[in-house]
Design brief:
Helices cover 36% and strands 28% of the residues. A hairpin with a 2-residue loop joins strand 2 and strand 3. The chain is built from 6 helices and 6 strands, in the order H-E-E-E-H-H-E-H-H-E-H-E. The mean pLDDT is 80. The strands form 2 sheets. A 4-stranded mixed sheet has the order 3-2-1-4. The chain has a two-stranded parallel ribbon with strand order 5-6. By secondary structure, it is α/β, with parallel strands linked by helices. The relative contact order is 0.16. It starts with a helix and ends in a 7-residue tail after the last strand. The protein has 2 domains: 84 residues, no CATH class; 50 residues. It is flat.
């Protein structure tokens, strides 16, 4: 399945990468193919094994989605003869969420960023200290939202 997805890409794969990502349900790992012409990244697969509740009940670490993504990504990279990269296989990191916050603020002009006074968000694990620091730098205050009702 992954080999077929790589074969359909516009461009030659030069690397396979696994990165952490998250949403309101929790952390997951995304497998990406990096191509050279055009220079781009393409999502091949998303690996999720449950929500952030696992952090509280002690079932992670280790993270099964990280193990699965690393095995599949490394096997695919070996098959293609390219390198495999997984910067943080042992635990989710905050780089992705922090980068998204920075990108958002850079895409806005100074007038629009000075109008951001509050950051309303939930307590999801991917909103880490680095994410908050980006918004605190422009004077925004974090306001927690109400927890979602299960089901």
């Amino acid at each position: 399945m992954l080999i077929g997805a790589v074969g359909a890409l516009p461009g030659r794969p030069v690397a396979i990468e696994a990165v952490w990502d998250g949403d309101t349900e929790g952390w997951f790992v995304v497998l990406l193919a990096l191509t050279d012409d055009p220079q781009s990244e393409h999502q091949l697969a998303l690996v999720r094994h449950g929500g952030d509740i696992r952090l509280f009940n002690g079932t992670v670490p280790p993270w099964p989605e990280a193990r699965e993504a690393e095995q599949a990504g490394r096997a695919l990279a070996d098959h293609l003869g390219v390198r495999f990269h997984f910067p943080s296989p042992d635990r989710p990191d905050d780089e992705w969420a922090t980068e998204q916050a920075r990108n958002l603020l850079m895409s806005l002009d100074d007038v629009r960023t000075t109008g951001i006074r509050y950051l309303i968000r939930d307590n999801a694990g991917y909103f880490t200290e680095g994410f908050d620091v980006v918004f605190n730098a422009i004077g925004a205050v974090w306001c927690p939202s109400c927890p979602a009702r299960p089901g």
